[in-house]
Amino acid sequence: MAFQTATAAPPSRPAGTPPPAGLLAPLEAEAVDLFVGLAQVVGLPKSIGQIYGLLYISTVPLSLDEIAERLDISKGSASQGLKFLRQTGAVQVCAQNDSRCDRYEAETGLRALATGFLKEQIEPHLESGEDRLDRLKRLAADAPAAERAHVLQRVKQLENWHRRAAGLLPFLIRFLGK
Fold first, then answer.
1. Residues facing residue 62 across a β-bridge
2. From start to end of the chain, where are the E strands?
């Protein structure tokens, strides 16, 4: 979906306030597109990149409703995206006394982003990987005799990769710090 961009900010719009609903300024559209591409590279939904990109470039914290309207996505999609981004530490809720709804802003620290991604996306896969490797090993043992040695060697290689990744992850998380 191509984003509709605002051609010029109306003179009555105060500085620091976002363009009207459903419109993205060219700078915002470019930031959103950049983060959509990054999200898709790591296998995340497009909406995650859209939301993070908008919050990253925004000069003011935005509410769920504003995010959904500005990106032309459903509130459900915005809510799910914000939930994921909060779990990974990529966005945070801002305390604002004058607002009854939560407003969100992007976490911009690379360490916090990388640590959150590793803990939320990579760590669960490594934990479930042990069970899968055990199943693969059992299935490989039952492979036809002509294939068994090859398949068992591949499973052994996967176990080695898994062990190395599992050993590296805590080191990476400690190195990045939080």
1. 104
2. 62-63, 91-94, 103-106
Tokens of 85: 């981004």
**DSSP three-state, residue 63:** strand
48-78: pLDDT as tens digits: 999 999 999 999 999 999 999 999 999 999 9
Question: What does the alpha-carbon distance between residue 111 and residue 123 come to, in Å, rounded to a whole number?
Answer: 16
The Cα angle at residue 46 between residues 171 and 102, in degrees rounded to 5 = 80
DSSP β-ladder status, 62-63 and 91-94: unpaired
The conformation of residue 88, written as its DSSP 8-state character, comes to T
Cβ atoms of residues 120 and 112 within 8 Å: no
DSSP 119: I
